[in-house]
Design a protein that fits this description.
Layout (H helix, E strand, L loop, with lengths): L4 E5 L4 H12 L3 E6 L8 E3 L5 H9 L15 E4 L6 H6 L1 H21 L3 E7 L23 H19 L6 E6 L16 H8 L7 E4 L12 H9 L10 E3 L8 H12 L6 E4 L20 H5 L9 H8 L6
Parallel strand pairs: 1-2, 1-4, 2-3, 4-5, 5-6, 6-8, 7-9
Length: 323
């Protein structure tokens, strides 16, 4: 049986680490890339803005330290991105460079080498107006902020490059909502960081306003390996969907997440006040109200869309077991 090989960009981040581990559990030979946190050994240091480094990453791929020869990965999962809306808005050029420019270059190079590319996108490609959700994969996108626009442009870049190379079906978009999981730093996740907020609320005189308007679907699950198996095993991947979506059905506002964390930890959340005002019309970054993603496209091709139970996972994570 041929060796299964995968390469994951952004492997030092929360999602990238989860994807690497999921492939390893499926007995794939997998390598990750990073930049500022890459050690050069378990995580390759690659500047995704440089054509020569990305080409070398693909052509000189060694899936394990004991590999005797170079090969090319069968699948690349592109997790690397500037994923912070406020930072994207402050430096649009840098955001477009990594979210669009680097994505287009990677897609072009992978398509030329017949490599399956799974591009991680976001629910923020949708406007999230009240009453619109859930959004099907073929719904009309209309981002409310620059981050969502750059990720949408990245989607189109992937689909265009594979179409031009006559490899349609090997460039796949996977949209996901806000993610949580085993984070090295709480700031890696807009969900994990709320646990810190609950602890800060214990300080004397603390008074914290927390959004109680936008609906979020915090997700912890693994589908990239299943997608890779499905598309690589297809006689004609061009007949499979080009855009897929994955999401939990757990629905919370950020304020409600803080309430869940407080209950799990046995901590008071009295100092956290709900803010139901929604977007400040004068704010440069406008966030959508409800971008819930339909997972129908994944279900239709037989891929399991199960996710971790939000409260159950956090009880396990902090060892807050009930008797």
């Amino acid at each position: 049986m041929p060796e299964k090989t995968a390469l994951v960009t952004g492997a030092t981040g929360l999602l990238g680490r989860q994807v690497v581990q999921a492939f390893k559990r499926g007995y794939w030979k997998v390598k990750g890339t990073g930049y500022s946190r890459a050690d050069g050994l378990s995580i390759l240091k690659v500047d995704l803005l440089k054509d020569d480094e990305v080409s070398a990453m693909l052509d000189e791929f060694k899936p394990s330290a004991d590999s005797l020869s170079h090969s090319r990965p069968q699948v690349v999962v592109h997790c690397a991105a500037n994923r912070f809306p406020d930072i994207c808005d402050k430096d649009p050029r840098a955001a477009r460079a990594i979210n669009v420019g680097a994505t287009r270059m990677l897609a072009s190079l992978c398509a030329a080498r017949n490599i399956l590319l799974i591009y991680i996108s976001t629910d923020y490609v949708f406007p999230g107006k009240p009453g619109d959700a859930p959004y099907e994969a073929d719904a009309e996108p209309h981002p409310t902020n620059l981050y969502g626009q750059t990720k949408l442009d990245g989607e189109q870049a992937v689909l265009d490059e594979y179409k031009e190379a006559r490899k349609a079906g090997l460039g796949v978009v996977l949209r996901v909502p806000v993610l949580y999981g085993d984070a090295e730093l709480p700031s890696e996740s807009a969900v994990n960081v709320l646990m810190e907020t609950v602890w800060k609320a214990q300080e004397p005189g603390a008074k914290i306003k927390m959004d109680h308007w936008a609906l979020r679907y915090p997700t912890n699950g693994r589908v990239c390996q299943d997608i890779a198996v499905k598309y690589l095993g297809s006689d004609d991947p061009s007949k499979l969907p080009y855009i897929l979506q994955f999401s939990s059905e757990d629905k919370y506002t950020k304020y409600e997440i803080c309430q869940v964390f407080g209950e799990i930890m046995g901590l008071s959340t009295a100092a956290i006040e709900p803010n139901t005002e929604g977007n400040d019309p004068n704010a440069s970054v406008q966030r959508p109200y409800d971008c819930h993603l339909s997972t129908k496209a994944l279900k239709d091709i037989g891929i399991d869309v199960s996710t971790q139970d939000f409260t159950g996972w956090w009880r396990w994570n902090v060892k807050a077991f009930r008797k």
